[in-house]
Amino acid sequence: MDYDIAIVGGGLVGLALARALAATSHRIVLIEQGPIDVTTPKSIDRPLTLAPSSQYCLNQLGVWPTIEDAVIPIRTIHVSRQYLPIHTLLTASAFQRQALGYVIPAGVLQQVLQHAAHEQANLTVLSSCHIQSIDVKQDHSQLIYQSSKGIQQLRVSLVVAADGSQSTVRTQLRIPVQQYDDQHWAMVGTLQLQRSHRYVAYERFLKHSILALLPYAKQRMGLVWCMTKSQWQKIEALDSTAVLTQLQKSLGYRLGRVLAVEGIQAWPLTAIHAQSCIGPRAVLIGNAAHTLYPVAAQGLNLGLRDVLVLADQLKQWSASADVVPLLNRYQQLRAPDHQQIRRLITSLLRLYGRPFPMQRMIQCGAMILFDQVDYCRQRLGRCAMGLAHLPI
Ligand SMILES: Cc1cc2nc3c(=O)[nH]c(=O)nc-3n(C[C@H](O)[C@H](O)[C@H](O)COP(=O)(O)OP(=O)(O)OC[C@H]3O[C@@H](n4cnc5c(N)ncnc54)[C@H](O)[C@@H]3O)c2cc1C
After folding, report:
1. What does pTM read for this prediction?
2. Which of 8, 13, 168, 201 is deepest in the core (most CB within 10 A)?
């Protein structure tokens, strides 16, 4: 056998799993189709919200102390609906926490994890190598990949698919998916404000779009705006002053004046759920198992909880032992969390994202419920913070 475990995909989730297995005796290979370059962080300004569950995970991985100075705490979340006179506030103090979550530029986290991967003794990193196919045998799996040296192969006991939404591993193993593609796009960028954000994050439901603002360093905020494709096409055609006016109109003035919007990029959105997150000698984690709309900033947070649970199972596993009990146990342990987060996002989209009769009345009722009833607020908050499925 060449390796005990192959991690396919060197995104944040694949890298985090590699790191979580650093103290084991497993021989691990991480295969990434792109370069793994520790000097040039990619997408440095895309804001990522790390829930307290991710803080816990990154602490367990020994990564948190390295990024602690780069994260910005979220002390309050302000949820509102355009044209409704009420809003809901979630505060860290109501949950006896210092922060409801933390914002970090994605590139910073990626760079720290890439650096750790290059230093890890039991890990071989194969970058610029694209997995093409998998042949599952009785006692191992054969991975065929394309590298600069041509087509190569290696034999492993277990394959972990961390290869994202369009997972090759998932396709090769014929694991069916449910896919929802209703032509939405996410626009991201950075806002320059006239005054401080006071560590408040905003989730604002507009008529046909959802806008999230996340506190960044100084008087800046990260913007994630999920909208229909036609809305994005209209915004894309505007100059920066017109985009600014449009944003200010959608936000109102609770944040003061927005002085500039910079670094606009956009991604098409899709939601994908693998019908099983295990396959023959394989397990799917992160976006390969569940790609979510980023309306509640949960994708990576859920992926990092996959990492914690899988690493825990793998620490107790020997590569010569049967892999099936491990896979079944993993699937059983992760199902409740996956289902709960899917329900949270579906409810948010149903409640605020799609027009239906009496919509305003129902939205108003929901806001009052979450604002006034502590039990509802606590449940929503614990779910969004990922605390329901962790020993913290
Ligand atoms: C606009 C936006 C905002 C978001 N904000 C948040 C947020 O605030 N908080 C949060 O928790 N989540 C957020 N998310 C979701 C989060 O970014 C993802 O869930 C997370 O980054 C997924 O990581 P991953 O490693 O599973 O997948 P990916 O990042 O897609 O990594 C997969 C890796 O696999 C590699 N790969 C693919 N195929 C192959 C192959 N055949 N061979 C070798 N390598 C391969 C790819 O090159 C890639 O590096 C957001 C998403 C979007 C779109």
Report:
1. 0.92
2. 8
